[in-house]
Amino acid sequence: MIRFDNVTKRYDRGREALRGVSLEVAPGELIFLTGHSGAGKSTLLKLIALIERPTRGQILFEGRNIGRMPDRAIPRHRRQIGMVFQDHKLLEDHTVFENIALPMIIAGYSQREIRGRVRAALDRVGLLDKEKNTPAMLSTGEQQRVGIARAVVARPKLLIADEPTGNLDPELSLDIMNLFHQFNEVGVTMLIATHDLVLLDRLGGRRIVLAEGEIRSDGNAREPA
Description:
Blueprint: E1 2-10, E2 16-25, E3 30-34, H1 41-48, E4 56-61, E5 64-65, H2 74-78, E6 81-85, H3 96-107, H4 111-124, H5 140-152, E7 158-162, H6 170-185, E8 189-193, H7 197-200, E9 206-211, E10 214-220
Parallel strand pairs: 3-8, 3-9, 6-7, 7-8
Antiparallel strand pairs: 1-2, 1-4, 4-5, 9-10
Helix pairs in contact: 3-4, 3-5, 4-5
């Protein structure tokens, strides 16, 4: 599904966030990206979503070199990807329903389909009774669940998450990761950046360790406890 071929990303003043990275992601995989702050985890995810472009090398997404994709094609590319962030990025003056519906509104779905899919996504994350609330009325964990519902409402092929449990306590973090497992079990490919090694020890999946912009190890985490 995704292939990085000797990818380097260099920012201003010559700082290399990624250096010569090569990896392959198969459809349906669950992959955790780990490493210290500044190791390159977020940059790798941004390259896949075309928030950033590679300095060298190529990134293939379903066989297409997205590093050379014209700007006008980026919105269509991103419609295949759900994105979850640590800070939720919810619109405070919109309801939970409206926040989740936004990607589908932008993509031009019918109101009937939007209603059905948003409520199905809310049901999956356990917030069906909160659709009329605003983000300020929710707990931090509930806000993150809204962010996940928004990311999956359009049924993307790929879900990427950047430190999705960084602001949550251990119990809530495990709940969120279990949600990701549920989506992965129905075929969604997952790439999750996290520094929570204690949590990962309880989860299965492939673990890629980054350090100073390079892949230092790439293997499978042990099976869930």
